[in-house]
Write a structure and sequence with these properties.
The protein is built from five helices and 13 strands. The protein is of the alpha+beta class and about 250 residues long. It has one domain.
């Protein structure tokens, strides 16, 4: 195992040192997935490879000023990419509604497989991400600002997802917080707690039509708690119907 790990490190260091020169070749390999890199650079932090890019363009959006550090040992042990750090300066992600449901805009059913977002958040040591999410439907669009923050140390995980106001939803504001230990996902002795809080999320006619929701104002509060003896979950949803609601449920 040590010899294999050392070999991977050696190959990785050679690759990262030449990443800028290899950018055209990498983009050729990524072309079938509709992904393009700009300003790619490689580096190393102790035993972990670091990748940076000025911009990553993909079907439906782009990421700007990206720093991605891979936890090499955990990635090898888990047989999947585990992030040590992911920091994105800014991002735009477009999704569209088709007969089969929501997908990345313009993907046409191709592209890279959808990532397991929850597993990625749980695995990542340090994550900071903010993106404008734009939804397209019926020839119209609406956008929101979604933020993600994940801080994980020694089996203790804290995950925060936020919804911030934007031009299409000036009253949208909310957050989802999770705090738990590794054992929550495995053994029954794990401790964890979390809460969700959406405050005065108001959809006008156009936004409600795009999302397929009623026109009106939403408030949601809820909590989750787990320990060795019990697991409790509660949620309360309040909806104030708008004047032009045509009941899209």
């Amino acid at each position: 195992m040590l010899a294999f790990f050392a070999g991977v490190q050696l190959i990785g260091r050679i690759f990262s040192a030449n990443l800028t020169d290899l950018e055209p070749t990498i983009n050729e390999l990524l072309a079938p997935y509709d992904v393009t890199l700009e300003g790619a650079k490689g580096g190393w932090s102790y035993v972990n490879p670091i990748f940076t890019a000025r911009r990553i363009t993909f079907s439906g959006g782009q990421l700007d000023e990206v720093l991605f550090e891979i936890n090499l040992l955990k990635s090898l042990l888990n047989n999947r990419i585990v992030a040590n750090r992911l920091i994105v300066g800014s991002a735009h992600v477009g999704v569209e509604y088709v007969d089969s449901g929501w997908r990345l805009r313009g993907s046409g059913g191709t592209g890279m497989p959808a990532p397991d977002i929850l597993s990625f958040l749980v695995d990542s040591q340090d994550l900071l991400f903010s993106a404008e999410l734009q939804a397209f439907r019926y020839g119209k669009s609406a956008s929101w600002v979604i933020g993600a923050r994940s801080f994980n140390r020694d089996g203790h995980h804290r995950i925060s997802l936020t919804l911030a106001p934007d031009k299409n939803c000036v009253s949208c504001k909310g957050r989802l917080e999770l705090d738990f230990r590794d054992s929550v996902w495995g053994r029954n002795d794990g401790n964890g707690l979390g809460f969700v809080d959406l405050t005065d999320v108001t959809f006008d006619d156009e936004v409600a039509e795009i999302l397929g929701l009623p026109v009106g104002k939403w408030n949601m509060t809820g909590g989750w708690k787990k320990n060795a003896r019990e697991e409790l979950f509660s949620v309360e949803i309040l909806f104030e119907r708008g004047q032009n609601d045509d009941s899209r449920f």
